[in-house]
Write a structure and sequence with these properties.
About 55% of the residues lie in helices and about 5% in strands.
Length: about 210
């Protein structure tokens, strides 16, 4: 089984091998700070083609962005809460050619005061992953919001309304039990059902005390 952080690169390489075997010029690229644009082989034959100039401009923009530790951290934590040394190395290797410069940028990224090394909960040893104070603060805020929602007072639909539903005898016992659970005041509820079954309509009625 491949390392979790290497899976994306392995899958990308597999796709690119397949595309090459099929004679296609397109390639699956790693993530970049500045979106790239595919340039077809015919346009690339013209040295001064506008597409070539645009591609070079994008390449330089990504290279400059990769030298900025703050920008690198923003890219690495854009879609995930933490990143590994492998993630950082691959990002820098993609955009910075000089090995010595990559090492300097890497040191600047990991040496920032807002970069936090993660540790194993059981052993206390470093887990080989990092995050940022901004990401940690966002997660703490989300956890706090969740606790406040769970601990707050939650208005139920009212005993009278539940009794009217019960006397209609249109619900089976299991359905009525689910209804009582969902409409009670014992904290937030999750209503799961396929599209078109009236989840939002019921919530709309509940919010208006119907």
């Amino acid at each position: 089984m491949a390392e979790g952080e290497a899976w994306g690169a392995l899958w990308r390489d597999h796709q690119n091998r397949y595309l090459a075997e099929q004679g296609l010029s397109i390639r699956v690229d790693a993530r970049s700070a500045v979106p790239q644009e595919h340039i077809g082989p015919l346009r690339m034959r013209v040295p001064d083609a506008e597409a070539n100039a645009r591609a070079e401009h994008i390449r330089r923009a990504n290279e400059d962005a990769a030298r900025d530790p703050e920008h690198v951290l923003a890219i690495l934590t854009r879609n995930q809460a933490s990143f590994s040394e492998y993630d950082l190395d691959q990002h820098l290797k993609k955009h910075i050619r000089d090995e010595g410069e990559r090492a300097d940028v890497k040191g600047n990224v990991l040496g920032r005061g807002d970069v936090l090394a993660l540790h194993d909960r059981e052993t206390g040893e470093r887990a080989g992953r990092w995050t940022t104070r901004a990401v940690r603060d966002q997660e703490r805020e989300a956890l706090g919001d969740g606790r406040r929602v769970g601990e707050g007072r939650h208005r139920d639909v009212g005993e009278g309304f539940r009794q009217r539903v019960a006397v209609t005898r249109e619900l089976r016992a299991d359905q009525l039990a689910a209804y009582d659970h969902a409409t009670g005041s014992a904290g937030p509820k999750i209503i799961e059902r396929r599209a078109g079954h009236g989840k939002e309509f019921c919530a709309w009625l509940h919010s208006r005390g119907a």
